[in-house]
TrEMBL record:
Pfam families: NHL, Thioredoxin_8
Domain Thioredoxin: residue ranges: 1-131
Keywords: Repeat
Identification of the protein by name: NHL domain-containing thioredoxin family protein
Lineage start: Bacteria, Bacillati, Actinomycetota, Actinomycetes, Glycomycetales
Top-level taxon: Bacteria
Keyword Membrane (UniProt): no
SUPFAM superfamilies: Thioredoxin-like (SSF52833), YWTD domain (SSF63825)
Length: 579
């Protein structure tokens, strides 16, 4: 894709520095890397070729039309290879989304990196390669391999979230066009627009956004005191923005604009770093924020002007319990009642809720299980849901995005049913004047579907990637990491290394699970478990070694490594964070 119909081979890339980016469009870490690559594309021009290799996790992501929509939705301005069967993924021995491979102009792999936070390292490597091959005359910058698709002609483009405004109008985050659009109750007539429509973060009466998503109205008394009516999750800017509806004025109310890398010890809203806020809901006298980028819920108190962690540890997985101990995976939608905060956890395809300081899972089985199955909640399956709403009868309507369906969970009977199907990537649900309205994101519209009550019994999908054979018993885990050129490990806040290990099923590990401060760890696999997934979260903090005002950096990655137990398996598992 993005080549004007031309097929590219590795030979076509000779003479250029190439970054191969293995990604999948459900993955928030992959979306972060797209934004890390943009300034490199601008800086090096045609001396650098980025090839996105889309190696999907979810079944929906194997659809080439869905991939084409994602390439447009996220502004991918380089060639993309569709790799639905993970053929190229396996050829490069990728283990994690995202994985980056740097190839020099002679065709040799010179660096491999997993996860996000590699901008400085990539800049240094690419800069050195460009300089070296300019000097020897082997750099080829004769033509661009990227061919842009023609612009679309629709009122909205990949809308994300919507809310009803006082008076009955609907405000929509027009995500791919970086603005907010106010629609009349007919859901078609444009009443007004907030935002210039270009990527940016400018405040004031000509504001800019960057792929905005969630919207939340403040209670009237709170709005009167703080001077703005609603808050926007300005996702790619890593900001929360306050909007005054009377004139469309926008002000940044939380976030620095820098992506969160580590706790910086403050709760002052304008001094904390955020990471891809995706949705918002008023609950317990504050806004709760779905912080998709770090798998947490945060709070924002507009009156106190504070923000911080509400729930979650940053580990990407599914675990219930007290809020400071739970694991989530890209929470992307929120809806509140008086006593419960409901959320959809997109990467675990789960519907969950918070009640009395404890998180529970209503529907969902983990990172690697998904499908379209109705019936008892314990057996029901969804596929990467992004939005939800509380219906007047108390049921929870879920925008089951990758199944293209509107689902309903009944808390009284703990059952799941399908209300509507054949929707184009529904991303949010609202109730407007008694009608259920769906944000049909890939159809670029808001729609009122015909509702029914069906029981779908589809397939149970489980992520199946090439399994690594490991020997039974003792297994050595090693995370390989080397600080980027000009950086050193940063001990400012204690150990710069953090590695968390878990397993699916949990019984796979007899010992070695939990959090530690070393890159290496000895695990013991339990007897009687034939296969499973080792889940590893690793991060390394570094800082500039010689700079007068050194910048801090955090390299982070979550791996889900499928393993099978065999006598001829390996006894050491090595994961590359940066090498």
């Amino acid at each position: 894709m993005n080549t004007g119909g031309r097929n590219l081979s590795l030979a076509d890339l000779r003479g250029r520095v190439t970054i191969v980016d293995f990604w999948t469009f459900c993955c928030i870490n992959c979306l972060h890397v797209l934004d890390e690559l943009r300034p490199l594309e601008e800086k090096y021009g045609d001396a650098l070729v980025i090839i996105g290799v889309h190696s999907p996790k979810f079944e929906h992501e194997r659809d080439p039309q869905a991939l084409a929509a994602a390439v447009e939705r996220y502004g991918v301005e380089h060639p993309v290879l569709d790799d639905p069967n993970l053929t190229t993924w396996d050829a490069f021995a990728a283990r994690a989304w995202p994985t980056l491979v740097v190839i020099d102009p002679a065709g040799y792999v010179v660096a491999t990196m997993a996860g996000e936070g590699h901008f400085e390292a990539l800049d240094a490597i690419v800069g050195d390669l460009v300089a070296e091959h300019i000097a020897d005359g082997s750099l080829d910058t004769t033509e661009s391999l990227y061919v842009a698709a023609p612009p679309a002609e629709t009122t909205l483009r990949f809308p994300g979230k919507a809310i009803e405004l006082p008076g009955g109008d609907v405000l929509v985050s027009d995500s791919a066009r970086h603005r907010l659009v106010r629609l009349a109750p007919d859901l078609k007539t444009v009443v007004g627009v907030i935002g210039t429509g270009t990527r940016g973060s400018a405040d004031g009466l000509e504001p800019q956004f960057n792929e905005p998503q969630g919207l939340a109205l403040l209670p009237a008394a709170v709005a009167a005191e703080v001077g703005y009516d609603l808050v926007v999750a300005d996702t790619v800017n890593h900001l929360l923005r306050g909007v005054r509806l009377a004139d469309g004025a926008v002000a940044t109310v939380a976030g620095t604009g820098k992506q969160w890398r580590m706790d910086n010890g403050t709760t002052a809203a304008l001094d904390v770093d955020l990471s891809s806020p995706w949705d918002l809901a008023w609950f317990e006298d504050k806004l709760v924020v779905a912080m998709a980028g770090i798998h947490q819920l945060w709070y924002f108190d507009p009156l106190a002007r504070t923000a911080g962690v509400y729930a979650g540890t940053t580990v990407e997985s599914l675990k219930d319990g007290p809020l400071d101990q739970v694991w989530m995976a890209q929470p992307s939608g929120l809806a509140a009642t008086d006593d419960r905060l409901w959320l959809v956890d997109s990467e675990t395809s789960a519907l969950r809720y918070v009640e009395h300081g404890v998180m529970h899972t209503a529907v969902g089985q983990g990172l690697f299980d998904f499908g379209h199955v109705d019936g008892p909640a314990a057996d029901a399956l969804m596929q990467h849901p992004l939005g939800l709403a509380v219906l007047p009868d108390g049921r929870i309507a879920v925008a089951d995005t990758y199944n293209g369906a509107l689902r309903a969970f009944d808390p009284q009977t703990t059952t799941v049913s399908t209300l509507a199907a054949d929707l184009a990537e529904p991303s949010d649900v609202i109730v407007l004047d008694g009608k259920v309205v769906v944000v049909e994101s890939a159809a670029h519209r808001l729609t009122v579907p015909d509702l029914g009550e069906a029981a779908v019994s589809g397939r149970h999908h489980r992520v199946t990637r090439k399994r690594t054979k490991v020997a039974p018993g003792a297994l050595r885990l090693e995370v390989l990491f080397e600080p980027a050129a000009g950086q050193k490990l940063d001990y400012t806040y204690g150990s710069p290394i953090q590695v968390t290990v878990s397993a699916d099923p949990p019984q796979l590990l007899a010992s070695g699970a939990g959090k530690g401060e070393e890159l290496g760890r000895d695990l013991v696999l339990a007897d009687g478990i034939g296969q499973g997934v080792l889940q590893v979260v690793a991060q390394a903090a570094t800082c500039d070694a010689e700079a007068e005002h050194p910048a801090c950096h955090l390299t982070r990655q979550d791996w889900g490594v499928p393993v099978s137990i065999a006598e001829d398996g390996v006894r050491a598992l090595r994961l590359v964070l940066r090498a």
